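Morning run. Coffee first, then this:
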Amino acid sequence: MSLASVAAICSALPDVSTGWLSESEQRRCEAMTAQRRRQQFLAGRWFLRQCLAQWHGGAASEYVLSAAEDGPPLLMAAPFDLNACPLQVSLSHSADWVACAVASHPIGVDVEDTTRQRDTDALGAMIHGEQEAEAVPLLDAATRHRQFYARWTLKEAWIKQAPDSPAMSAIPFEPCEAQRADAVVLRSPSWVLAVAPVRMAALQCAGLLRQALTKEPWRRCADV
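And here it is:
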């Protein structure tokens, strides 16, 4: 998986045209009226293609992605046989950040900009399951803040790879030892990113993710 700046990606796009987009991507892009959202969309789609080319060969323009309004991107074509090498992809945007993940199994990634002010205690109450809600009041403010962003991104990442998942409050996560983890949270001073499901030993980071200050193992647990 990898992380980059939207501004940096947009400055390096091949040209001002969008001919490299698939038909469904073209339709979705043309329907966007907000310039900022359009930039994020184009940056994410080109960034994912660049990463696919870097990790699996070929040219970025040889990768074809879907762009359904109500679903994650799907890899529709590649410079190799997708039946022999099936790949699953995931994208996430937040402020000036765009993250992508690629795996041989369903994968979800979520990134959140942490520089803006948010009432994380109030938001946490909306997403915590029963076990999580009981544990949170025992934590100091700084730990509650850190765990809010961990759980928020973890739950969003999980839902992306399993669209039929229940509400966020019904997808509890807890920190754990590395060998028990099925998800990972990475942090810097300005962003938090989660990817799931993934084993710590199998995780490969590129781009700005190499600058992560911490890499935390988490696991999805049963709620009661």
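The CA atoms of residues 40 and 46 lie 10 Å apart. Good start to the day.
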